[in-house]
Amino acid sequence: MFIGLLLVSAILLLRIGGLALRTAAGGRTTITHAVALARMEAVGKLVTSETGLRDIVVYQNTRLGSTKRSLVVVTGKALVGIDLKHRATVDIMEDARRIRFTIPRAHLIGIDITSLKTYDESRGLWNWFQPADRDEIYGQARDQLRAAANDMAVLQHAEQSARDLLTALFATDGYTVDVVFTPFVQQPAD
Fold it and tell me: What are the boundaries of each domain within the chain?
C-alpha cells in the first residue's frame, strides 16, 4: 500500500512540476501558418477524368541487421486530362458548319493522396522509424498509385470524356464537332 501511495504521489508531483516548468519557460503551444508563393501562372488544363484508387504499400528497411516494416493502405485520386496551353487549335469552317479541335492526348496531371492508413508497423531493435521513412512511404505510395492509374486505361477514358464534353458544348445549331488528338509532348520546366 505504501508503494502505491508513493507511486501516485510521484506521478502527481511530476505532472504539477512539468506544468509549472512549461508555464514558467513560456511553454505555450502556438500554431502558425506561412504560405510561400514562388510564382503564379495561368493553368490551361482540362481534367476530364478523376479515378479513385487504393493500393497497399509494404515498406521494409534493414540496417545493422535490424529490420523495420510497415503495411500501409493508401487511398487517392488520379487526375487525368488535357493540357490546352500546348498545341491546342480550333478550326471553324462556317460554310460546312464544322468545328475541328486539335488537342494533345490526355496525360496524368496529378496524383492526390487522400489517406494513408497504417495497419501494421514494427521497428527493428537498432532501426527506429524516422521522418525520412514516412517520406519514403509517401513517395512509394504516390508511385504505386501512378502505376495503378496507368494500368487502368484512364487515358483512354479521359480522351473520350474530352471528346464528349467538347461535342456537347459546341455541337449546337447544327454544327458537327471533330476532335483530333496529337501526341502529348512534355514541356520543359522553366
Answer: 38-182
